[in-house]
Inverse folding.
């Protein structure tokens, strides 16, 4: 029997509560890929984990982890499970992690915004948000790589009014997220996910909620063998 995508989603949502289904339907409508963050080689796990938490809270679906020298390790007591609900894209090829990440996002239409003090920088509140933007944050001590600085389309700063020269990296991310998402949600920009994206995310959330989801997927494929070659469940199982 051929199953359409809604049939597939409904099958797996039989294993979760109505409350969860309603919550997924509500929150997926608040998700966006209009903004994303590139975290370049952060070495304090609590900073990266805090940014994941903020990303989830502000409705950003994607975060990109560039792991040139430091592997991302989620600290769940900081992220509070947010890694379960957002898509974490990892780049760990030492020679090409940053170029690969930035080039791929540019190909998808993102403006690359380096969060770094610069002679020609703009305040975050003055940054146009009509186009999709990927914000790049650098390592806590060394900042952004030369490649990120040279290949950024714009340099952005968050205003400061004290003696300290910079915010904590996770605080910077949260301040930027607040500014741009507030402006975005008040705008007429088409910032929401496509129906296909919403379906994929709801299926991923559902499978991550079900205990023994891998076994249930295997059983489902036994019942629907025609889907084995045409549908890849592996991308939803993390």
């Amino acid at each position: 029997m051929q199953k359409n995508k809604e049939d597939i989603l409904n099958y797996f949502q039989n294993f979760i509560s109505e409350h969860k289904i309603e919550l997924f339907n509500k929150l997926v409508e608040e998700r966006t890929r209009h903004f994303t963050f590139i975290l370049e080689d952060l070495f304090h796990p609590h900073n990266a984990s805090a940014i994941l938490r903020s990303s989830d809270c502000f409705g950003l679906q994607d975060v990109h982890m560039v792991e040139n020298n430091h592997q991302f390790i989620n600290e769940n007591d900081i992220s509070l499970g947010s890694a379960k609900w957002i898509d974490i894209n990892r780049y760990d090829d030492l020679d090409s992690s940053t170029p690969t990440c930035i080039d791929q996002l540019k190909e998808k239409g993102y403006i690359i915004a380096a969060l770094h003090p610069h002679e020609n920088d703009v305040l975050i509140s003055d940054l146009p948000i009509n186009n999709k933007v990927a914000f790049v944050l650098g390592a806590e001590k060394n900042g952004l790589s030369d490649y990120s600085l040279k290949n950024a389309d714009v340099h952005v700063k968050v205003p400061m009014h004290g003696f300290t020269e910079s915010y904590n990296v996770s605080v910077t991310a949260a301040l930027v997220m607040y500014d741009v998402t507030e402006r975005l949600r008040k705008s007429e920009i088409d910032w929401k996910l496509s129906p296909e994206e919403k379906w994929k995310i709801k299926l991923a959330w559902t499978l991550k909620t079900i205990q023994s989801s891998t076994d249930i997927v295997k059983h489902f494929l036994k019942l629907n063998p025609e889907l084995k070659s045409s549908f890849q469940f592996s991308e939803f199982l993390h």
Remarks:
- The radius of gyration is 19 Å.
- Residues 5-27+193-236 form one domain.
